[in-house]
Amino acid sequence: MTFSDFVTERQRPLLRFAMVLIGDARLAEEIVQDALVRAFERWEHIAGLEHPNAYIRRMIVNEYLSWRRRFGRVVPFDPNVHAGSVADHAGTHAERDAVLADLARLPRKQRAVLTLRYYDGLSDPEIADVLGCTAGTVRGYASRALATLRIAIPTAMAVKEATS
After folding, report:
1. Distance of alpha carbon 8 from its chain centroid, rounded?
2. pLDDT tens-digit map of 89-108
3. What are the residues whose beta carbons fall under 8 Å from the beta carbon of 141, sequence distance 6 or more?
4. H or E element at residue 66
């Protein structure tokens, strides 16, 4: 019997065996795969045995036990223990949406200047080339845009705190 024939015939029963042994389908599949990889390397020897299926099952059990020993040394992660230290992502998304809304209220050229400066990392002369104006005009647009955002963001924060 070739290794391919063995796997075709016995893989599903080996997976069921591992599932009953381990109780976790993903881990069972992983252990069976690891055992079959090791069996492939020694297939000439295993194929000559009287009960190759029993040998592979024993490999699965040994692999399972070695996984248990490895996992036994590691402290399992309990998400409930660390739940208080994880920030709520909803607040981050809300702040992002608020900043995007404030940027959307800016005139197009001011918004373009801020985007080119802070997102693309261009200098004032480079932004001036892109927009077809002078570097002084770029600085003026940036100054007015930032002033508008400085007024809008604290006002939004005060409204947010008042409603909390």
Report:
1. 34
2. 777 777 777 777 887 788 87
3. 109, 110, 112, 113
4. helix 52-72
